[in-house]
């Protein structure tokens, strides 16, 4: 490719790379929710996918009804508020009825508990809001852009929806960083993440911190649902987006918020390049497992992920 | 009252090491096996409900026993050796497709040999995917085993010879014949599966109280200490992966040949892996009997949630029932974890213990 | 180690489940199980499809008092599109009612594969209108399978015929690039043999691009398509894969008019989420499309008007609702045909199988039934379990599907030998001696 410089081929390479990076940011949006909860409570929250589904269903159903009653911008605000209230309620219920009773259990038990929560959310979500596919349009542009058309034939394709999601993700990361570094609650969260027992002994209420962190993860789920829902419609398949986020957090490290973004970029770019350049020679469809292979390779070098807290222990 | 250790005196080491140390347990398990192998088929023949008809055998007992067998395989790895795996479904798939390939290319081979080869193929694959466990552990390892799951899912669809170049990638099982015995009726299938489950359970119970099992448990409880007392972690972990995958492969072959009869790769998707992990955790990590309890719980609960309103003649729409099942299922997982994190096997053990002390509790 | 209590509780639970079947007094009527999925990833498609089936049964009961006076008793069972749940549903329902299940319509290719092995033993016909195994059209081998009014192979052939016509004739296909974008599962891989044969015949370049289930992310596939610049994309998708693909097509500026979905990628849930970007997208029709016929008026009058039914006036004219209704109608008419021979009473699966195999609906009969214009006349025989091999093309205009083509008929001269070959291979594998269709009456 580099030998005979073919602008079309180089352009295509950058196009694949760019769309891979943007997809990665979309994965990272979901991954952020995982990281938040793992950081503060050591729970590997399998329910993040179901939370995205419920958040999306609440948003789209409320918006659909409100649109007919009030102007669009107000309806959107109210729908987001409704969805946020629901996620807060879920966070409260999760903490009150599940986590509080599972203090001191093993990581595996907590992981299983979140799978139980997944089923409850999926069942109730579908029962209350319906299992149809709902179109979500919150005004995000969906057209494509072509940049650098003078350099490459046909330009490089970028999707506006993806770009807006990248902006949204960046804003979220900044907001979360400020929240963690500057606010009192955020400091409490970090203290809990460092050492549960020590934090409790200086008077930080563990249960309230857990509630807050699940609530924040719920808000992140709303953002993820808004973006993914605009992309594929709000429907049950949104829960599968969580499976795409797993290798992302493994690469980035379970406890690092910037790690989620960097992991997303790596996985997104890696899997797209693999699918486009390696896929055709083996029949295609490889990106799904390739992401996990990338994650595995990273783990073999750094068992705690790129940015994860180093746990000093022998295996 | 009769269920006592008092009065049983072991005068041989082999008595000390017996799986069932209490006489009532030994009688109980014999009665149970007789009931399962002889009485149930007889009741079926006599047409006593619910044993009459096929439903109980082909839709309840057969899948349940196969899942329990698979869960034993997974439990050896997760419960005894402490290596979390989310790829169990894929290893079942390896067994199923290996058995299919053996039956296509070596048609003369006896069915039991086919099943053993299927297990062996799965063991080899399991060994390969077990290698990362030497470097990573815990949840990171769990996600690494997902790589195995998704890679194998893809391979079943994409690699032609696995499905003998079937255009659609869907394959069908050959007729089941064991030494001239045509395993056709649901009851015969149930008996075949029951026999395999019983043998695997017995084998696993013996394995975990032997040298290898103790090595695994040492690794699980504290790997560094285990290494210091002379256990080689690499060997133990890899044997755990291999033996676990062997049983999973065997169960996969049964699932494909006896239960589904025709299947597509989707039958061994990640959902199956999660299902097996639920069985193991709800049943009880590090417990053989827990695998059966967990499988019964997981398989019967949805049927019960759907069946009870129907039984009480409460009209309930199919979709509401399905959502209710999901919700109740999730809630019950939570309740089980909250009230007995060690699973149903622990509840069972407590019950037995209480019975032994009765009527004089502490 | 099983122990007494486990086993006992298992049996108790099983007894509880079995009791309702035994205890409830059986109504007299023809029992038809409905395997459906109203939850899970494929629910958006499964709900209207199942509604069409049960509402048609309800119509027959409310309007006609049943089939020739024999009431239809139906029961839904949720499969969630999972094969093992589907098999459990089948086992639970196959012996219900006075005569057992009349026929089973599994609504899923995966479940169809599993039930194909079970149906001959239980003597229950499988109706798989528009899906399932393509080679099961050969009734001499697949006695119990009925892929009525269209198989995947028919669809593949018609798709290529339509594309050829767009270019101005089959000879114009030479050197063209066609992409098959398919759901990576047996369902999606079914058309590949036919398309490959056609590619050889007409000398066009066929590129196969799989999409891993469920298909929420298809960037790399569409970048490949953008680079390849094909003349047409044929899409074999199901569920969330379809709207995602349409949207990604828009993203890479691939004209939607050059996209041809097959008939499970051509319903409202496939295009609505993609919004304005889906305008111009085309899809094959399983003969029928969206819209109303006389039977819908009857539905309003006898079912919805009386407060029965799962759907309602507005939702009952969608593509998938109509698909459910057509499938149910074909089953009901099969039973009616069998009643002409065996009498007006609940029939066994074996008798219903005879009826479906002798089902013949001409224009007049379709008009009587209120299905005029929805499907073309159909005639089933021992050697042809499909009955008619036609399809049309529809296009989404942003609000509704518009029929944009005439009827195309699949090229039997090409498909027949392929079918014979595939069915023969299955017969050999299973040790089935094909029936001699010339001797069947």
Automatic annotation (TrEMBL), chain A:
<feature type="transmembrane region" description="Helical">
    <location>
        <begin position="163"/>
        <end position="180"/>
    </location>
</feature>
<feature type="transmembrane region" description="Helical">
    <location>
        <begin position="209"/>
        <end position="228"/>
    </location>
</feature>
<feature type="transmembrane region" description="Helical">
    <location>
        <begin position="72"/>
        <end position="94"/>
    </location>
</feature>
<keyword id="KW-0812">Transmembrane</keyword>
<protein>
    <submittedName>
        <fullName>Inner-membrane translocator</fullName>
    </submittedName>
</protein>
<dbReference type="GO" id="GO:0022857">
    <property type="term" value="F:transmembrane transporter activity"/>
</dbReference>
<dbReference type="InterPro" id="IPR001851">
    <property type="entry name" value="ABC_transp_permease"/>
</dbReference>
<keyword id="KW-0472">Membrane</keyword>
<dbReference type="GO" id="GO:0005886">
    <property type="term" value="C:plasma membrane"/>
</dbReference>
<dbReference type="Pfam" id="PF02653">
    <property type="entry name" value="BPD_transp_2"/>
</dbReference>
<feature type="transmembrane region" description="Helical">
    <location>
        <begin position="12"/>
        <end position="38"/>
    </location>
</feature>
<keyword id="KW-0813">Transport</keyword>
<keyword id="KW-0029">Amino-acid transport</keyword>
<keyword id="KW-1003">Cell membrane</keyword>
<feature type="transmembrane region" description="Helical">
    <location>
        <begin position="248"/>
        <end position="268"/>
    </location>
</feature>
UniProtKB/TrEMBL annotation, chain B:
<feature type="transmembrane region" description="Helical">
    <location>
        <begin position="109"/>
        <end position="131"/>
    </location>
</feature>
<feature type="transmembrane region" description="Helical">
    <location>
        <begin position="238"/>
        <end position="258"/>
    </location>
</feature>
<feature type="transmembrane region" description="Helical">
    <location>
        <begin position="138"/>
        <end position="157"/>
    </location>
</feature>
<dbReference type="InterPro" id="IPR043428">
    <property type="entry name" value="LivM-like"/>
</dbReference>
<keyword id="KW-1003">Cell membrane</keyword>
<feature type="transmembrane region" description="Helical">
    <location>
        <begin position="190"/>
        <end position="208"/>
    </location>
</feature>
<dbReference type="InterPro" id="IPR001851">
    <property type="entry name" value="ABC_transp_permease"/>
</dbReference>
<protein>
    <submittedName>
        <fullName>Inner-membrane translocator</fullName>
    </submittedName>
</protein>
<keyword id="KW-0614">Plasmid</keyword>
<feature type="transmembrane region" description="Helical">
    <location>
        <begin position="55"/>
        <end position="77"/>
    </location>
</feature>
<dbReference type="Pfam" id="PF02653">
    <property type="entry name" value="BPD_transp_2"/>
</dbReference>
<keyword id="KW-0812">Transmembrane</keyword>
<dbReference type="GO" id="GO:0005886">
    <property type="term" value="C:plasma membrane"/>
</dbReference>
<feature type="transmembrane region" description="Helical">
    <location>
        <begin position="316"/>
        <end position="339"/>
    </location>
</feature>
<keyword id="KW-1133">Transmembrane helix</keyword>
From TrEMBL, chain C:
<feature type="domain" description="Leucine-binding protein">
    <location>
        <begin position="32"/>
        <end position="398"/>
    </location>
</feature>
<comment type="similarity">
    <text>Belongs to the leucine-binding protein family.</text>
</comment>
<dbReference type="InterPro" id="IPR028081">
    <property type="entry name" value="Leu-bd"/>
</dbReference>
<protein>
    <recommendedName>
        <fullName>Leucine-binding protein domain-containing protein</fullName>
    </recommendedName>
</protein>
<dbReference type="InterPro" id="IPR028082">
    <property type="entry name" value="Peripla_BP_I"/>
</dbReference>
<dbReference type="Pfam" id="PF13458">
    <property type="entry name" value="Peripla_BP_6"/>
</dbReference>
<feature type="signal peptide">
    <location>
        <begin position="1"/>
        <end position="23"/>
    </location>
</feature>
<keyword id="KW-0732">Signal</keyword>
<keyword id="KW-0614">Plasmid</keyword>
């Amino acid at each position: 490719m580099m030998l005979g410089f073919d602008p079309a081929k180089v352009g295509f390479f950058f196009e694949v790379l760019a769309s891979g990076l943007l997809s990665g940011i979309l994965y990272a949006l979901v991954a952020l929710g995982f990281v938040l909860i793992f950081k503060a409570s050591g729970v590997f929250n399998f329910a993040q996918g179901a939370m995205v589904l419920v958040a999306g269903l609440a948003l789209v159903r409320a918006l659909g009804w409100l649109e007919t009653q009030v102007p669009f911008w107000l309806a959107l605000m109210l729908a987001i508020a409704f969805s946020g209230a629901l996620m807060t309620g879920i966070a409260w219920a999760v903490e009150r009825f599940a986590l509080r009773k599972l203090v001191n259990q093993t990581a595996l038990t907590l992981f299983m508990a979140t799978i139980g929560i997944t089923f409850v959310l999926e069942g109730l979500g579908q029962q209350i809001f319906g299992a149809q596919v709902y179109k979500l349009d919150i005004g995000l542009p969906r057209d494509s852009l072509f940049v650098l058309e003078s350099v490459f034939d046909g330009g490089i394709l970028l999707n506006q929806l993806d770009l807006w999601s990248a902006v949204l993700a960046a804003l979220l990361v900044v907001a979360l960083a400020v929240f963690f570094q500057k606010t009192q609650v955020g400091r409490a969260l970090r203290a809990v993440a460092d050492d549960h027992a020590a934090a409790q002994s200086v008077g930080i209420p563990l249960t309230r911190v857990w509630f807050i962190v699940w609530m924040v993860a719920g808000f992140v789920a709303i953002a993820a649902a808004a973006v993914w829902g605009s992309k594929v419609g709000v429907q049950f398949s949104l829960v599968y987006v969580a499976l795409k986020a797993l290798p992302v957090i493994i690469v980035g490290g379970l406890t690092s918020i910037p790690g989620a973004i960097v992991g997303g970029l790596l996985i997104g770019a890696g899997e797209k390049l693999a699918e486009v350049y390696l896929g055709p020679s083996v029949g295609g469809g490889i990106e799904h497992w390739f992401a996990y292979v990338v994650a595995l390779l990273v783990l073999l070098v750094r068992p705690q992920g790129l940015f994860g807290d180093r746990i000093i222990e022998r295996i | 009252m009769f269920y006592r250790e008092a009065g049983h005196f072991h005068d041989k080491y082999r008595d000390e090491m017996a799986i069932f140390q209490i006489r009532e347990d030994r009688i109980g398990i014999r009665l149970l096996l007789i009931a399962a192998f002889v009485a149930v088929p007889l009741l079926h023949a006599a047409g006593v409900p619910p044993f009459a008809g096929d439903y109980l055998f082909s839709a309840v007992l057969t899948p349940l026993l196969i899942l329990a067998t698979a869960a034993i395989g997974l439990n050896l790895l997760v419960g005894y050796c402490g290596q979390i795996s989310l790829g169990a479904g894929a290893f079942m798939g390896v067994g199923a497709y290996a058995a299919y390939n053996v039956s296509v290319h070596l048609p003369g081979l006896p069915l039991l040999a086919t099943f053993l080869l299927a297990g062996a193929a799965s063991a080899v694959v399991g060994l390969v995917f077990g290698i990362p466990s030497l470097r990573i552990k815990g949840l990171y390892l769990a996600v690494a085993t997902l790589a195995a799951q998704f890679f194998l899912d893809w391979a079943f669809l994409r690699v032609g010879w696995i499905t003998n170049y079937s255009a659609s990638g869907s394959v069908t099982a050959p007729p089941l014949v064991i030494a001239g015995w045509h395993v056709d009726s649901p009851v015969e299938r149930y008996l075949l599966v029951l026999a395999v489950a019983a043998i695997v359970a017995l084998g696993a119970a013996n394995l975990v109280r032997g040298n290898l099992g103790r090595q695994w448990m040492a690794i699980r409880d504290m790997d560094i200490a285990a290494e210091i007392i002379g256990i080689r972690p690499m060997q133990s972990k890899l044997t755990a992966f291999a033996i676990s995958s062997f049983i999973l492969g065997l169960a996969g072959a049964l699932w494909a040949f006896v239960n589904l009869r025709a299947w597509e790769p989707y039958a061994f998707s990640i959902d199956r892996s999660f299902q097996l992990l639920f069985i193991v955790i709800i049943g009880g990590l590090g417990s053989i009997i827990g695998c059966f309890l967990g499988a019964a719980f997981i398989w019967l609960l949805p049927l019960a949630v759907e069946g009870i309103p129907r039984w009480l003649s409460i009209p309930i729409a199919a979709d509401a029932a399905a959502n209710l099942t999901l919700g109740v299922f999730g809630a019950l997982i939570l309740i089980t974890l909250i009230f007995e994190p060690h699973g149903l096997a622990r509840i069972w053990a407590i019950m037995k213990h209480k019975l032994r002390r009765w009527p004089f509790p502490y | 180690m099983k122990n007494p209590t486990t086993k006992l509780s298992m049996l108790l639970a099983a007894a509880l489940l079995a009791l309702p079947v035994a205890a409830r007094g059986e109504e007299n009527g023809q029992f038809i199980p409905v395997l459906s999925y109203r939850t899970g990833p494929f629910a958006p498609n499964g709900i209207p499809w199942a509604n069409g089936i049960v509402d048609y049964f309800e119509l027959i009961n409310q309007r006609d008092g049943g089939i020739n006076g024999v009431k239809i008793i139906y029961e839904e069972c949720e499969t969630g599109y999972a094969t093992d749940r589907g098999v459990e549903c089948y086992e639970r329902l196959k012996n219900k009612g006075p005569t057992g299940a009349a026929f089973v319509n599994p609504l899923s290719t995966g479940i169809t594969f599993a039930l194909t092995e079970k149906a001959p033993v239980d003597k229950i016909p499988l109706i798989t209108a528009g899906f399932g195994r393509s080679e099961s059209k050969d009734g001499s081998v697949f006695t119990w399978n009925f892929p009525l009014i269209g198989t995947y192979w028919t669809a593949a052939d018609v798709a290529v015929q339509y594309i050829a016509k767009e270019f101005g004739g089959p000879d114009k296909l030479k050197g063209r690039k066609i992409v098959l974008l398919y759901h990576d599962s047996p369902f999606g891989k079914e058309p590949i043999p036919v398309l490959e044969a056609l590619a050889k015949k007409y000398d066009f370049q066929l590129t196969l691009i799989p999409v891993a289930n469920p298909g929420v992310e298809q960037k790399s596939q569409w970048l490949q398509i953008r680079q390849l610049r094909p003349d047409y994309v044929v899409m074999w998708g199901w569920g969330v894969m379809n709207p995602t693909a349409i949207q990604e097509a828009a993203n890479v500026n691939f004209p939607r008019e050059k996209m041809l979905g097959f008939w499970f990628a051509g319903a409202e849930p496939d295009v609505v989420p993609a919004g304005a970007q889906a305008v111009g997208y085309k899809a094959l029709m399983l003969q029928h499309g969206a819209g109303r016929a006389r039977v819908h008026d009857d539905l309003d009058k006898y079912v919805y008007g009386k407060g029965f039914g799962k759907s309602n006036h507005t939702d009952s004219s969608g593509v998938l609702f109509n698909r459910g209704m057509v499938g149910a109608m074909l089953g009901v008419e099969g039973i009616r045909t069998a009643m002409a021979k065996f009498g007006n009473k609940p029939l066994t699966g074996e008798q219903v199988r005879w009826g479906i195999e002798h089902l013949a609906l001409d224009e007049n009969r379709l008009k009587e039934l209120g299905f005029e214009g929805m499907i073309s006349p159909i005639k089933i025989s021992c050697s042809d379990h499909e009955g008619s091999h036609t399809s049309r093309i529809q296009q989404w205009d942003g609000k509704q599907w518009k029929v944009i083509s005439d009827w195309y008929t699949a090229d039997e001269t090409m498909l027949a030998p392929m079918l014979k070959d595939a069915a023969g291979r299955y017969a050999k594998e299973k040790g089935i001696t094909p029936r001699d269709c010339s001797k069947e009456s």
